[in-house]
TrEMBL record:
UniProt keyword terms in alphabetical order: DNA damage, DNA repair
Matching PANTHER family: DNA REPAIR PROTEIN (PTHR38136:SF3)
Function: Involved in DNA damage repair.
Protein name: DNA repair protein
Gene Ontology BP term (one): DNA repair
Domain Archaeal Nre C-terminal: 305-407
Entries under Pfam families matching the protein: Nre_C, Nre_N
Source organism per UniProt: Sulfolobus acidocaldarius (strain ATCC 33909 / DSM 639 / JCM 8929 / NBRC 15157 / NCIMB 11770)
Domain annotation Archaeal Nre N-terminal: ranges: 18-290
Family per record: Belongs to the Nre family.
InterPro entries noted in UniProt: Nre, Nre_C, Nre_N
Amino acid sequence: MPKIPAELCIKCKGHKYLCGLSICPILERFKNVTSTVSKIVINNKIEGSTPPSILIGEKNYPKVSLVYNIPPGVIGEEAKDYENPEGWWGRKSLNDIISIRSSLISTILGGLNVRDPYKLYEKEISLAGISEKPVVSETDSSGKIVPKLKFDGILIPRGPSLTVQSIKVSENPKVPRTIQKLIFDDLKAEESVIKLYLDNENYYRIISAFSLGFLGLKRNRKLVPTRWSITAVDQIVGNYLLDNIRTLDTIDNVEYYYGSYLGNHFHIILYPSSHSSTWIEIWHPLSLWTTELIISELSENYWGEYDSLDGGYIAARFSIIEKLYKRRRQAGIIIIREITKDYFAPVGNWHIRETVKRALENKPKTFNTIEESLKYVNTNLEANDKINLLGLKSIKKIIGQRRIDEFLFK
């Protein structure tokens, strides 16, 4: 097999199959090396509380599978920690997260028609996925358990899997009133997502509600693969907030923020400008997708047009636009993500959203010009001696555009 270019792997992150293969060889190798489950003994049934943790797969769409995650023997509030991105941040290491997720059994219901989400409503299976508290559930364990972990670049890792015929929800799910009302309303899905966000509903629960077919006009409701739902909700809310700040004043200075977690370093620069955004990823040798230093660039213009769609960028973009919305300001955005060899396993793009959000809570360092801020970032990169940020195509474009603007409006 010919060598797959690292640049392609960086763009793909294991789920777009840009190389033409039906599986990602990097993830397959990683799963085989890190699978910690060799033997699972369960008597007759699997019982435990889903954290809640339910996702919809995309394989064979529009016939899809539902993955219902259960930590065997774990009942009640303790189950929450098995899927808690906001609570994990800053507290759990990469190894901790892998260990937690490997303790879940992914029970799989296959052959679901995406246009019939009501079948899951009736059995309260999907309701368990939007519950405010863990829900006790059980399923027959007579099938064959596949003792492998499942990873990709957008979703939280999954534990060993088991295909089942049915799942029984043994406890009444506690559905938030905000979502409960929308289940009976006939409101477009995008409008429902925005309403839930403005009502301060838990962000990850909004994603689950969107994925499990609770939102939208009743005649159009359907199950949406969770991977698609994550990026869709980030886009929907991000675009709504962006539309509300386009006419506002810009920030006054060039501001720099920094955040780091799980071997990922985020350098964020906001500068006085109408909206435009640049996403730069610097992948170190022996980090997840590459054995060489790779730099990828993505740009978004004022009108919201991207070079390409990247779920990690959309997650980071959401957190920044949310912060600007709360400040009642707009700005140009540069996000530089440096991924080191310490990020050896993909755990989903939640950590991008959460790290950027927390970075923006810090007091910024200010600069007079974008060039000064980029020089500062360059000296603080782990790969500082191998990279010239000012020489990147996307950065040259930003600096060139600003100089023209300054010349024209003097």
